[in-house]
Each structure stands twice: as structure tokens, then as C-alpha cells.
Amino acid sequence: MTSCGWTLAEVKTTPNTQVASDTLYIYTWTGYTDSDLLDRFTEETGLKVVADVFDSNESMLARIQTGGAGAYSVIYPSDYMVQKMADLGLLMELDHSLLLGLEDMFPMFKNPVYDPGNRYSIPISWGTTGLIYNSRKLKQPPEDWDYLWQNQRQISKQFTLLNDVREVFGATLRTLGYSYNSTDPQQISQAYEKLIKLQPAIASFTTDAWRPQMIVGDLLIAMCYSADAAEVMPENEDLRYITPRSGSSLWTDTLVIPKSAPNPDGAYQWMNFMLQPEIAAQVVERLSFATPSEVAFRKLPKTLRDDPTLFPPESVIERSESLAPLSAEANEIFDRYWTRLTSA
């Protein structure tokens, strides 16, 4: 294994990409960093890290496209957003000779459909999308997405959906028997009509704000990412997480370097730091998101390796779909319906 026993300071980019800076700015999801992680990186590299957070891929992209492109050296887009950003010319093509640890990944992450050959991105975490619920307050636990429609009156204003157009429409498409990745205008329209019927009962569209509300019992159900569920459930023994029976998304969050990165050398150092199996395993234990590194996975305690919320069984993976990149035309359709839905 080649990713052990090296120091981050040894990794250097070519001279024309070096930027004199003692600070690395990253743009990431809530809950993906903590002071221990940032301090450890600073100790190993001498670089200070400033982490800004976003709550949806779309809000991240909007910020990058409206003046934020030159602010960050590392960004954490999800799978489908990688190709969208690459198609927009926003991403730097990675020099794999500067990366240590890509060979440690599980096979499913080495040549992903959203970024063949990991040309622009490296995977940092993965999981499913499902429902977290309060098992004490719900007489009947949810088993599938259609639970929200079937029990709309009983749970009205006590559940949230993700602030993510692809996830919300994908889940609804699955209730109709279609693919998470459908681009059929008629099928997307049917999903929108179904969501409009549910809309009056939805408390909010949020990726993160549900957490404290679920912990104290103000919400009954929240659509969420498995990594977030794994982090929150220890705070309330009544909370449970399920991946819906009809199928879910199998998401991957990644690290990319924008073309306008002010410190690409530091960005490669951050990537190599996060690729270290020791660091990746510690992050799983502390921050509760699943590592795509097979070597790091082996370093985890058995209780974590066997945790179905973090590392879903093969039966769940088989009925889940990775979010595939969409054409510009399909994106326009989804965005139009999403604007109507969230502003209704």
C-alpha cells in the first residue's frame, strides 16, 4: 500500500500552479469538517483552513457562478454536479501523479459514471437517501416513499424534504415506478403533479435544519442523507433510519479543484490528506459518513463496518440508483418545476 508513511509537505504541484498562501479555503457540506480535522491538517502542512458550508448542490453552483469561483481551492460537489461543473468549464483536470491513495478505493468508485476515470474528482463519502423518523411517535413506521402521501394528513407540517431537486423528484419518480434518473418530460410532469398534492403538508425543504427538530421531537419524519442520520440518531434513542423499499439514490460526494483555485498546491495537499486511510477512518468514527476507501474501511471497528445506515447491505445497493448527469434540456425542465414547487 503506497498511501502510508508519507508527509503532505512532500507533494508539490508544478511551478506554474503554485500560489504563495498560508490559507486554504474550502467549500463543503455541513458536518464534513471539524476542528480536529482542520487542526491536524494545519499541523501536517502549515496551512490554515477556512471552511464555508453550503446546503445544496444548486446553491453551491449559484455562488460559484456569481462571483465565488475564485474564492475556493477545494469544493465538495455531489456526483451529478461534478459533470455539470465540468461541462461549464469550472473544474481543473486532476493530475493523478500528484494524488496518493486513489488505488485504495472500492472498485465502484474508481471509474464512476459521473466522472469516468476520476478525471475531475475524487470520492470522499457515499451513502443512501432515505427517511429518518421518530419510532415512538409514529404508530406505523414508514417503509417506502409513498408513506408521505398515504399519511399526509396525520404528519402534516411535521416532516421535511431535502432541499435538492434531483433527490426530491427522484424519490417521487420511484413512487410512480420510474427511474430516479428519468428524463421523460411526461414522467417528470407526473412527479411534479404528485408533489404539488403533497406540498401543503411539507414543513420545509431543508438539508440540515431538520436535525435539531428531529432530536427534540418537533418533527416526525425527515428525508435525509444516511450520513446525517447516522450522526443524529445517537442524540435520540427513538430515531430510526430506513432506505425506502421501492429504491433510493446511491450518492457520492467528491473533492474537486476549481480552475480559478487560488491555492491549487494546497488543494492537492488537502486531497492527499483526506485520502490517507488513517485520516479517512478517523473521519468515519468522528463525523459519521461512509468512506469510499476499502483500506480505511478495514481499519474501522466492527460495529461501524456492520452499521447498515453507514454501509448499506448489498440488497439496498441493488435497488438503489446513482444519480446520473442530465442533459441541459432535462436540467431546465427539473429547474422549472422545482422553482414552482418550492415557491408555491
Q: What oligomeric state is this?
A: single chain
Strand proportion: 5-15%
**Could you list the spans in which at least 5 consecutive residues all have pLDDT below 50?**
1-20
Contiguous helical run count: 14
What's the Cα radius of gyration?
20 Å
Helical content (DSSP H or I, runs of 4+): 25-40%
Indicate the structural class.
Answer: alpha/beta
What is the residue-averaged pLDDT?
A: 91
How far apart the termini lie comes to: 54 Å
Shape annotation: globular
How many β-strand runs? 9
Q: Which sequence of SSEs, written as H and E, runs from N to C?
A: EHEHEHEHEHHEHEHEEHHHHHH
How would a crystallographer describe the biggest sheet?
A: 6 strands, mixed
Describe this structure in words.
It is built from 14 helices and nine strands. The chain is of the alpha/beta class. 37% of the residues lie in helices and 15% in strands. Strand 1, helix 1 (35-45) and strand 2 form a beta-alpha-beta unit.
Brief description of this entry?
The chain has 344 residues and is α/β, with parallel strands linked by helices.
